[in-house]
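Fold these two proteins, one after the other.
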Amino acid sequence: SAQLLSLLLPLVESFARARPPNVLILLADDLGVGDLEAYSASALVPTPAISALSAAGVRFTDAHAHPICSPSRYSLLSGNYVFRGRRLSSSWGLSGGSQLLPGQRTIAESFRAAGYATLLLGKAGIGGEVAALPDELRRSTEDDRVDWLLRRGRRLADGPAQWGFDESLSMVSGIQSPPYAWFNGSVASLPRGSRCWGTATHATRTGDWVSGKFAGTGLRHRRYTPCGAGDGHDGAADWEGHMADAHVAQAALGFFDRRRRARGPQPPFFALVATAAVHAPFTPPDRFRDADIRTWVATSEVAAPRRLHVPHSSMVAELDAVVGALMAALRSAGELNETIVVFASDNGGLSCATKQHGSWRPSPETPAPPFEDVSPERSGLQSPLCGANSSAHLRGHKGDLYEGGHRVPLLVAWPAGGVPAGGECGDLVGLTDLYATLLDLAGLCAAR
């Protein structure tokens, strides 16, 4: 953290000691540097809100995370490298506890101890534990544990409420894996009960969404698997995966509005807003199907280039809309200047094969993805369903040790703190640095 701190602290040291700033971390999922206009001239999706955030602060051009999500999220929350947690390669789902070990103090706990209000919205992504789980189920499958959680237990014993967050509206693993349910603190929100969704496409008035275990980047093992009469429950009965980021944005706006309406001075806040975008299965609300996405493809059937709907690109547009809404709300509440805003991704961008996956809608007519599970680097072919190269000029993508797998966008803005607008830094930094750096910028001790 010393490198990142040395770049920012001289500008803000006196201000940080005089008035503790708010802290907002916006963490995208699977977003690469090639997906953003602020980082790549070849980006196909206009992202004006993220570009405005870049112009308002410092853009880091050599920032890194882990090549996959859970280790990065653990490192951000704990300030530790992943091997210092529960498992060598991190923790997922509800299979024996989160990656946090007893005694490891999270960044939320450190801010809360200093009087901050703390908030987590969106994907938690570091594993967890079901409360009061019967002993026989501890040796069973995760599907059985999820079924018991949804039908009977309905509480987490190791989740955001235990990690230092006063408020949270979270998903254990995101939109791609069960349980498909929101948790208010430790409690599952199941107003209409639960059900089995399986792996299938579900049509709603706001768009199609896809359920199924979509962790990882492969295509070959995906299959349409509708639920049978005896199958366990895997989600809330009212779950709509394509509306996840709409719910996240609404919850954040509600939090800011409550602060604006409250009587008397409010404590500073630490908020981690972790979007579903741009993770598979790429089913955003229908309003983003018509976003201004500059993806054009020439085909033998069409003489002139035609506009093509690319689901991954639509989620990039949705992500930008969420960022824009939150920045506007902070500005309206008069808190933007007093807020350190950090925007980053949890790992590098997605491969062409994975983004093709987003155009598959599992059904009896299409029981398996009709795409080649190959990368354009190997095949020499670039599907128009892939959009721009999410890694831009870098080799590799999410999951790779090549730089495209772990170099990520990182933007930091704090107008009142003196962070220079339009700044650029090419020094090596990482998401692990944020824990100690943000506490230092706020004038707090980073004891862990």
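Now the second one:
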Amino acid sequence: TGGRPPMEGSFRLAVDQGGVVSSIELTAAFDSGVVDGGAGDLTMGVCWADNAYRADDFAVHGSFYNSGVVGSTACRAPGVVQTIPLHELAMEAAAEAVGLPADAVREANLYATGDAALCGVTVGENGFNWNLPAMWQSAKARWEVAARREQVEAFNRSNRWRKRGLRMVPVKYGIEDNGGAYKEGCSLGVLADGSVRLAHGGCELGQGIHTKAAQAAAFALGCPLGGVSVSDTSSLATPGSADTGGSATSECVVKAVLDAAETLNARLLPFRPAAGAAGEGAWEATVKAATDAGVSLAASGWFGGGAPP
């Protein structure tokens, strides 16, 4: 991606003996190099700087400056990967100041449903599903955090030079419908030998969108995953699809794949074996029977915008 721009950060905060942070001020300055690309990192970095924490008095100051180095080109979550660690560093400092475990301080400051967050967001309302506190409690129990911490502390007491640590860190990354901008198409075809050819409107950037689309097709059609291949992205195959971004394109593509698979399943239904009779080779036999009967096994699918699935 060309890397992320360097960021200089600082913080000031007020914390009580119970670990509750009542006031926090974050300052972040991004080095944009010889270009102005740091503006995007600055915008998202500021809007996500609160991470998962509330404070009665919260302020974040952001800026970017130019220097004589090559500019960076952050590809995903620009700026966020820098400002969230800055806030986490502040939480570590708060915990050290009052002598509490860092996990306890983080838990004491988590947003609750109804809290006002940055950029006009109300946590847990207006389509935002706030399940992080429940996930936090579940994770502590399933991962046996308390028992593991005792083991870590026992190890540290017994070893002068080697030390171990244990931390739980939450991450809040909001996704919304972007004004209905999410629109993704899919073209799905089954060949006579049972193999499946799939094309969709998203771009594979290393996020695994091709794999997710192939898995969705195999699951919905009941065919072997190894027989599903994904074509290179082309607007000729899926015209009208939106750009890839906003951390929800994969889910929208999957919905389009499921839409196309629903059409194909309706056409294949008369040729499928009876329930309980399916076994090895059943998929290929179903496809052959449908093909011999002249049934079209090509379909298109569409996710037409709105909130991400």
